[in-house]
Amino acid sequence: MRICKCCNAKVGDSFDNCPVCGSKIEIKSEESNYPVYKCKRDITTIYLTWSVRVLIILTIISVVVNIAVGGIPWSLYVITGIYLFYKIFLSRNLVEANLIQRFLSVVITVCLLMIIIRLISTEALNVQIVIPNILFGALVVSGGFYFYDFQSQKSHILPIIFTIGVAIFSIAILFFLFGIIRWPMIVLGGVSLFIIVFSLLFYRKSIIAEIKKKIHT
Amino acid sequence: MSKKKHQIDNNTFAEQEAEFQSCLERIIGGVQLPPREIQLFEQDVRKAVEYYISSSLTMEEAFERIGPDIFGTFYSEPDPNEWYPLDSAAKIYPLSMTRSNMSMYRISANMTKQVVPEILQLALHAVIKRFPTFATTLKRGVFWHYLDARRKRFTIEEEENQPCSPIKVNTNSDQVFRILYFNRRISIEVFHVVADGYGGMTLFKTLLNEYLRMLGEPTTVADDILDISEVPKPEESVNAFTLTDKSKNTSGYGNASALQISGKRTKIQPAQLLHFIMQSQDLIQTAKKHGTNVTGFVLSAMFLAVKSATKETKGTFQIQVPVNMRQYYPVRTLRNFSMYAIVKIPYENVVDMETLIPMINEQLKVGTSKESLDQMAAMTNKIVSNPGVKYMPIGLKGIVISRIIKYITRKSFTATLSNIGAVKTDFFGNIRSFEAILGPVNSNEVSCGLVSYEDSIVLSITKTVMESAFEAKLYEVFTSLGIDVVIEGNNL
């Protein structure tokens, strides 16, 4: 403990300056009570903040240039790319930022963006074939990973259920509203059903327990 | 375990390797985790044994000191049904947290000797199994977050960041609390989602007791130190808000904005942490002389300090005083069970202690009464059980509810004063003092925690702005009344 020569405050060993009057305290003990903080500011937060700012500027530039030069709405593709970059590399959930959730949310975002581009753009994009194929691949990869590492991944069931729901819903819409049936839709329906049946046969107890936790109110 | 403080004769240890392995097998046999985790447990035990041997204990004595049941059968795959919905008060914390702002608090113990991290780590392994609600990780459901049982190695860390800095809770293996050590100080930092000060303090005291036992120091048996050989009791993990009397009236969180101390918030939070270390008897006697208790007295000093630290001249100062509801209900939950009282004094009425204290006493009496706290608890229950809130998907809640709460609570208090009270447990001269630190929040710029142990009482001040008018005035008020104050804190 030292005494500030200026205001006579009794101050501990951590300070360089008196916390009461601000004047310099000359003799400093070797053993401080607090560490010298290594990371003064959260690097991730700075990195995220600046990256998002840069992406917003790029988005605005692409739209302005596209409008100025005219022609096809190519800025849509740029925005899609920027958004996916953000989703994949910059966006992180504060709770449960797991690989399955991130992967499937990117996949569903891609599907949604493709539908939007298809609706806005005049270019031919066969979403009836492409989207079921993407969802099929996503379910195979995420389902495989989920069951391969079940003990660690079992709580990440929701994104898979959600993706299966999206898959079945889109098949139903295409079939019942538009009367469309393509082979990728059949394969997607098949893999969705397979995951459901496989889960119920081999992991019923654990999965029901996880679902109970997830939907508690 | 960064610093190697103990000289170990590796040759001696190598000769005893077979004995070590056989003793290790006895205590680690019940651990049923992946090999990598078991390897880490083994390293923890090895480091502790090395420490004991360097302190002239034999291998047998070292294992005797560690105890045969340190791991028990706790470290195996948890029952899938072992999880905890958040209590009524905790539900808002994960919704309103940001990457840089989480509701954290810290309790520290300043030991008389240098901390031995090797032993502290083992003490944590021994203690955590008695605290299942702390042995969890935060998860996200469709409607609410919840705490899911976590069976991995819980680790201690050497302190290197700002006090109460946000805790990472986004993976399966993240803890909801931290145990830190630095020189002679051991600290626990808890995310409010899991427990209030009572729960955190119970875990902390139990940990300190076990740590001291492992160091061969005398230990204590007290009500507030849990027996780690016992099975956790269901009443320790209940949501006690559901047990409160159903008050017909509800009183809520809606407050007019309060006057704030002046200054710009710094990018690094908290901007400053200061401890006013005083003699308990000095403070108690001075408070008595002024016709109030310690809380009332410190509050009156804080009102004078905030007045001198603000540039505003119109408005009301509002200081939040958390109140432990266990004093009104015979529950032993280790989760959140606190509400708060608000003491409001208009700017022009903050003149001197003599005029402030009667107003503070009156408001404290009403605000900390069972009726008042029941009304607030009823409001909390009403909000979280409202179907519109309850069944709103969590993503939407994060956007809507958190913004409403942030809007309501933003700048709603001038300061917070949390009086943890006296730590009555006897640690046989191994602890010099305790500190209670509240993390920075959006609702106010200055928070104070007060805790006493033996003959010292520590007022810890956490500020979000650098300007020093608040603490300078507070120091002046205390010293002018003859209270001897030593100031400690972090040097920024």
Strand and helix layout:
The complex is a heterodimer of chains A (217) and B (492).
Chain A: E1 2-3, E2 10-11, H1 43-69, H2 75-90, H3 99-120, H4 127-148, H5 150-153, H6 157-177, H7 183-202, H8 204-214
Antiparallel strand pairs in A: 1-2
Chain B: H1 10-15, H2 17-28, H3 35-54, H4 59-66, E1 83-85, H5 92-96, E2 104-111, H6 117-128, E3 136-140, E4 145-149, E5 156-158, E6 177-182, E7 185-191, H7 197-214, E8 272-279, H8 280-289, H9 294-309, E9 316-324, E10 338-346, H10 353-367, H11 370-385, H12 387-390, H13 394-409, E11 415-423, E12 431-438, E13 446-453, E14 456-463, H14 469-480, E15 486-489
Parallel strand pairs in B: 5-6, 9-11, 11-13
Antiparallel strand pairs in B: 1-4, 2-7, 2-12, 3-4, 6-7, 8-14, 8-15, 9-10, 13-14
Helix pairs in contact in B: 3-4, 3-6, 6-7, 8-9, 9-10, 9-14
What would your notes on this structure say?
- The complex is a heterodimer of chains A (217) and B (492).
- Chain A is an all-alpha fold.
- Chain A has three domains: 1-36; 38-91; 96-214, no CATH class.
- Helices cover 66% and strands 2% of the residues of chain A.
- Chain A is built from eight helices and two strands; from the N terminus they run E-E-H-H-H-H-H-H-H-H.
- Chain A has helices at residues 43-69, 75-90, 99-120, 127-148, 150-153, 157-177, 183-202, 204-214; strands at residues 2-3, 10-11.
- In chain A, strands 1-2 form a two-stranded antiparallel sheet.
- Chain A is flat.
- The two termini of chain A are 54 Å apart.
- The model of chain A has no long low-confidence stretch (mean pLDDT 85).
- Chain B is of the alpha+beta class and 492 residues long.
- Among the domains of chain B are: 1-75, no CATH class; 251-489, Nonribosomal peptide synthetase, condensation domain (Chloramphenicol Acetyltransferase).
- In chain B, strands 10-9-11-13-14-8-15 form a seven-stranded mixed sheet. A five-stranded mixed sheet of chain B has the order 5-6-7-2-12, covered by helices on one side. A three-stranded antiparallel sheet of chain B has the order 1-4-3, with no helix packed on it.
- In chain B, strand 3 and strand 4 form a beta hairpin.
- The longest helix of chain B is centred in the N-terminal third of the chain and has 20 residues, at 35-54.
- Chains A and B meet through strand 2, helix 1 and helix 8 of A and strand 3, strand 4, strand 8, helix 14 and strand 15 of B.
